[in-house]
């Protein structure tokens, strides 16, 4: 049996890869950090190593591991796959002398990874090729799971880990979920996948069934769930407003905007399905957030060396963003108008952009239009006091990653950054 060693500091990501490899008949071992990885490479001599690029330097970083591996004639020829959240061409070139066969950007495309594993190990991997759009987000302490076009079993496996991470990141004590199914028609042959979907949601969230809503107009799904005792008390609804009424009434904060957020999310999936946009699975989370409360050290690990832009004509918002990220050692470039930011892009690159929609000269929509026209895929988080449904949907259709409503809180800014940039799946 072929043997793969996974070196990654995220316990959930390690478990995900270990499980997927085992399901395809490949023996897998895991290492929790660089020091552990170096020891296990030497003792296990695996057939392949899969490792994260961003390992903590204190416990041997990736180059420490690769140099030790190269020194040992028993391990020097072991092929390596590197996974990275952010990596530039120069860093990729530095990996070449160490028998690194592939570098994948996170979130990984599981079918592409399995194709590479087949090539390197000579072992066929089964991949579900069912077209599917799957996303998960937290708004108003409700987990929204969006699924369109079909149920892909590999993506459902990813979803299980994502839900766990979102609950930890946002410290959700009483999980509430809305599962939105768009552009999908089910038949009897979909029974196993429907069981997998519902079991995934319930087991990963540990939510009470009365705190789960499924939004769909599919008549087969309604009959399916009505006949299943295991899913008793899960409510199937066709109206999002009704689904939110029972959940949001128990939450703190404004119910009004919570409703609008949910409408936006549902429409995003529907619009993507109808317009033929490429699949996306924005499952972003902090894989190391094992403690109950997010610490500054957790954020520092993510925000290290980030280049952040704050594009907003409000001086108070500029200072809030600057001061928030200054605490985690990250500098922020501020711009009072969209034209200033677009001019800076000729010389600078930003890993994350906070963008106001309404500015006096070049507004946020014009900035988004230019970014899309130039093919620049910078993660954009829109900041605005606007909550109109059509306005927000328009921003999402132009490629933004998330939407936050003013007034802002520092902790919310940090958590949203963690969700957007700590990408494992």
Overview of this structure, please?
The protein is built from 16 helices and 15 strands. With 425 residues, the chain is of the alpha/beta class. The protein folds into three domains: 3-121, Rossmann fold (3-Layer(aba) Sandwich); 133-275, Transcription Regulator spoIIAA, CATH 3.30.750.24; 296-421, 3-Layer(aba) Sandwich (Rossmann fold). Strands 2-1-3-4-5 form a five-stranded parallel β-sheet, sandwiched between helices. Helix 12 (315-326) links the parallel strand 11 (308-311) and strand 12 (332-335). Helix 2 packs parallel to helix 3 and helix 10 (255-275) packs across helix 15 (389-397). It is globular. Residues 251-293 have low confidence and may be disordered.
Q: What's the CATH first level of the largest domain?
A: Alpha Beta
Total helical elements: 16
Shape: globular
> Biggest sheet, open or closed, and with what strands and sense?
5 strands, parallel
The CATH architecture of the largest domain can be given as: 2-Layer Sandwich
Given the helix and strand composition, which structural class is it?
A: alpha/beta
| End-to-end CA span | 26 Å
Provide the CATH topology of the largest domain: Transcription Regulator spoIIAA
Radius of gyration: 22 Å
Estimate the helix proportion, in percent.
Answer: 40-55%
Observed structural traits:
single chain; 425 residues; alpha/beta; Rossmann fold; Transcription Regulator spoIIAA; 3 domains; five-stranded parallel sheet; five-stranded mixed sheet; 16 helices; 15 strands; globular
């Amino acid at each position: 049996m072929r043997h793969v060693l996974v070196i990654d500091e995220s316990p959930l990501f390690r478990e995900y890869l270990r499980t997927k490899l085992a399901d395809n008949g490949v023996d897998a071992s895991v290492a929790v950090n660089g020091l552990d990885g170096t020891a296990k490479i030497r003792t296990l001599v695996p057939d392949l190593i899969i490792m994260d690029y961003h390992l903590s330097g204190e416990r041997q970083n990736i180059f420490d591991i690769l140099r030790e591996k190269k020194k040992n004639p028993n391990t020097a020829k072991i092929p390596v796959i590197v996974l990275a959240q952010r990596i530039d061409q120069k860093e990729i070139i530095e990996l070449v002398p160490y028998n690194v066969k592939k570098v994948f950007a996170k979130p990984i495309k599981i079918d592409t990874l399995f194709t590479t594993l087949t090539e390197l190990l000579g072992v066929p991997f089964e991949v579900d090729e069912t077209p599917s759009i799957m996303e998960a987000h937290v708004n108003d302490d409700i987990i929204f799971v969006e699924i369109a076009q079909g149920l892909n079993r590999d993506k459902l496996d990813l979803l299980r880990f994502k839900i766990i991470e979102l609950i930890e990141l946002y410290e959700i004590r009483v999980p509430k979920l809305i599962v939105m199914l768009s552009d999908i028609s089910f038949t009897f042959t979909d029974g196993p996948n429907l069981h997998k979907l519902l079991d995934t949601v319930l087991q990963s969230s540990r939510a009470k069934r009365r705190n789960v809503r499924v939004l769909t107009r599919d008549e087969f799904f309604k009959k399916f769930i009505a006949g299943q005792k295991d899913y008793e008390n899960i409510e199937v609804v066709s109206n999002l407003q009704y689904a939110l009424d029972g959940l949001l009434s128990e939450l703190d904060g404004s119910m009004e905007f919570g409703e609008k957020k949910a409408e936006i999310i549902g429409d995003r999936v529907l619009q993507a399905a109808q317009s033929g946009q490429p699949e996306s699975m924005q499952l972003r989370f902090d894989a190391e957030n094992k403690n109950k409360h997010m610490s500054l050290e957790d954020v520092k690990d993510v925000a290290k060396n980030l280049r952040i832009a704050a594009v907003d004509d409000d001086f108070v918002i500029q200072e809030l963003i600057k001061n928030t990220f200054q605490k985690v050692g990250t500098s922020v470039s501020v711009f009072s108008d969209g034209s200033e930011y677009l001019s800076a892009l000729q010389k600078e690159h930003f890993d994350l952009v906070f963008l106001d929609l309404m500015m006096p000269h070049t507004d946020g929509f014009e900035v988004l239009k230019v970014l899309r026209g130039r093919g620049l895929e910078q993660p954009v988080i829109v900041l605005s006091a606007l909550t109109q449904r059509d306005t927000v949907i328009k921003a999402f259709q132009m490629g933004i990653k998330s939407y936050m409503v003013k007034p802002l809180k520092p902790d919310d800014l940090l958590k949203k950054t963690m969700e957007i940039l700590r990408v494992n799946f």
